[in-house]
Amino acid sequence: MAGQRLRAMAEELSAFRDAVRRFVEAELAPHEARWGRQQHVDREAWRKAGEMGLLLADVPEQYGGAGASFAHECVVFEELQRANVTSFGKHVHSIVAHYLLDYAAEEQKTRWLPRMAAGEMIGAIAMSEPGAGSDLQGVRTRAVRQGDEYVVNGSKTFISNGYLADLICLVVKTDPAAGARGVSLLMVETRDLPGFRCGRILDKVGMHGQDTAELYFDDVRVPAANLLGGEEGRGFTQLMQQLPWERTIVAVAAVAAIERAVELTVEYTKERKAFGKPLIEMQNTRFKLAECRTTAQVARVFLDDCIERVMDGTMDAATA
Q1: pLDDT per position as a tens digit, 239-271
Q2: Which one, of 248, 241, 169, 157, lies nearest residue 202 by Cα?
């Protein structure tokens, strides 16, 4: 039965949610407007979230994570949406962590994940390019092996967390003639890296505090050991394998936003008066609100089933 496992965890998740909500309301939400003006989150906010154990909730404790479940991770995303905190790019940060968890060597996990969990290192994943978005086979950023290093040349755009990123999971072509089999993933530490440059933070219709940026790589040298999975050409498969986790957290945020929108609308119809009475007392208003709440509830039931599938390891890329 969908949601059965989550219901069994209800008390534990409720206590965790209370702690997350208090943190978000005290440490993140009050700064949202300012972050929007400056186009990025303060690094101190990342460190505070790390101290609370909120950055990598479902990563094992041996790598600095909280050692909790995917359901706990979802609670964090839900509370960020509930408070309308759209600037804090935890979703991308967590995505990068799971690439490391699933494909990195043990030494890399112990080197990078604890720093990511503490908020000392911010993660980004760089796929999109000026001429390649969803068509990942068409990426032109090139990585050429030279001894114990790869030399990287190319550019990326629309990269979330791009301005603040310390560690980038970079989608590159190691064999341009091999199509999807020529795609690889390189982990790039950006701090004081010769040839790497972060361009402008892009102006967007919304999410103004999310540092979506352009990235440039000019003869950037990356250790060959930073190739995820240790073998060229595995990048496309790795990207597809991560879709269940990635798309489910996007759905979590979307459904949480829907639920909060319905809550706020109901509150407004109780306060707003027309023709001598609150809007909530008008029949058509009630009809419309019932439709909205039903849509939200259907989405929640479907989402809970997806969350449990991710937790059980039964969510595949096609379903995602």
Answers
A1: 999 999 999 999 999 999 999 999 999 999 999
A2: 157
In 202-300 the beta strands, taken as DSSP E runs, fall at: 213-223, 273-274, 277-278
- Cα 159 to Cα 210: distance, rounded to the nearest angstrom: 10
User: Pick the catalytic residue: 79, 246, 259, 308?
Assistant: 246
Contact 186, 210 (CB under 8 A): no
- Asked if 17 contacts 81 with a C-beta cutoff of 8 angstroms, the reply is no
> Would 158 be classed as within a structural domain?
yes
| Number of structural domains found in the chain | 3
**Residue 294: count of CB within 10 angstroms of its CB:** 11
Is 61 among the catalytic positions?
no
Overall pTM surpassing 0.90 (yes/no) = yes
At residue 319 the predicted structure's pLDDT band, cuts being 50, 70 and 90, is: confident
Range(s) of the domain holding residue 180: 123-234
For residue 136, what pLDDT is reported?
Answer: 80
Whether residue 319 lies inside any domain: the answer is: no
| Inside any domain, residue 185 | yes
Q: Which tens digit of pLDDT belongs to each residue from 129-175?
A: 988 877 787 899 999 999 999 999 999 999 999 999 999 999 999 99
CATH of the domain at 69: 1.10.540.10
Query: At which of 82, 117, 152 does a domain end?
Result: 117
Distance of CA 238 to the CA centre of its chain: 16
- Phi and psi angles of residue 207, each rounded to the nearest 5 degrees, phi first: 50, 50
Q: Among 69, 87, 117, which residue terminates a domain?
A: 117
Instruction: Say whether both 25 and 101 belong to one domain.
Output: yes
> What pLDDT, on a 0 to 100 scale, did the predictor assign at position 34?
98
User: What radius of gyration, in Å, describes the C-alpha atoms of the chain?
Assistant: 21
CATH label of the domain that carries residue 227: 2.40.110.10
The DSSP letter of residue 135 is: -
